[in-house]
Amino acid sequence: MKTTQKYSRRLTQIIGSPTPWLFLIGVIAVGLIVEGTSRMIDAYLTGQPWQVAGWMIGIGFSLLFLAVIFFNLPRVIANIGKALFTQSQVPTVAVEEQVPRRKGLVVLVSLGDYTAAASALEYHAWDLVPGSRPVLTHCWLIAGPGEGETSSLANAERIKDELMAKGITADIWPLEDADNVQEAFQAVKTIFQVATNKYKLTKGEVMADYTGGTKSMTSGMILAAIAEGIDLQYMKPNLYQADGRADRAAGSRPRFVTVDFVSVSDED
């Protein structure tokens, strides 16, 4: 099979696009088969020799077989059909203020004295009714490397202790490189698998908050969430200072982000 593919590639390089050659070979092959079949019928009815007709039919089918082998005819036909009938997918993004509380939450933990992950967890952990049981049952804290009391990892450990004291399962997922999009992407995808297989959470019961962390961590989370069909949210500050920075004392509220892919014709 590999040998056939190798010769097919070489043949394509030599003759260029296979489309006109496929058409030519197809016309010749069909012509031989039709003519051979006609002569075969005449030979049968008149009692004449049929060998020539048989050779014509055999050569015609041989040409069709070679076209399939060397030009991968089924793939060519499939590609033509895909180009004619497949519509392109255009993403549409919507932001809503009403954010449903979820049982599972994946957050990115920032370094520093303030982390948006704590606010996101607080929103999902408790319902609006005072004294009610927490809605949130499982949490995953993705943290970057570093040392010190305000490092990303230290903040994640502190948040985990607080959640565990409230009866909420919390796992820390440390990253070796906070600026590696692929590492963050794979971590989030793995977390979604754990949520489904270990904790039996459906995709509709998990939310991913991309507010904290580095830009690379945010990118990895968003890409993984879209690929897995997981809902997204971010924390929007309630108030901004005069210089445009968020007023942390005023707190923040989550915003629900939905990404839908709509089929759009290329002619639109």
Description:
- A 7-stranded mixed sheet has the order 1-7-6-5-2-3-4, with helices on both faces.
- It starts with a helix and ends with a strand.
- Helix 2 packs antiparallel against helix 3 and helix 7 crosses helix 8.
- The protein is α/β, with parallel strands linked by helices and 268 residues long.
- The chain contains 8 helices and 7 strands; from the N terminus they run ααααββαβαβαβαββ.
Helices and strands, in N-to-C order?
Answer: HHHHEEHEHEHEHEE
- Helical proportion? 40-55%
Count of DSSP-assigned helices? 8
- How many runs of DSSP E, i.e. beta strands? 7
Widest sheet, order of strands: 1-7-6-5-2-3-4
Low-confidence stretches: none
Please give the alpha-carbon distance between the first and last residues: 41 Å
- Average pLDDT metric: 80
Q: State Rg.
A: 31 Å
> How much of the residues is beta strand, in percent?
15-25%
Largest sheet: 7 strands, mixed
Report the principal-axis shape. Answer: rod-shaped
SSE topology sketch:
Layout: H1 2-15, H2 19-46, H3 51-71, H4 73-85, E1 88-96, E2 104-109, H5 116-125, E3 138-143, H6 152-165, E4 169-174, H7 181-197, E5 206-209, H8 215-228, E6 231-237, E7 252-264
Highlighted features:
268 residues; alpha/beta; 8 helices; 19% strand
Short description:
This protein has 268 residues and is of the alpha/beta class. It is built from eight helices and seven strands. Helix content is 49%, strand content 19%.
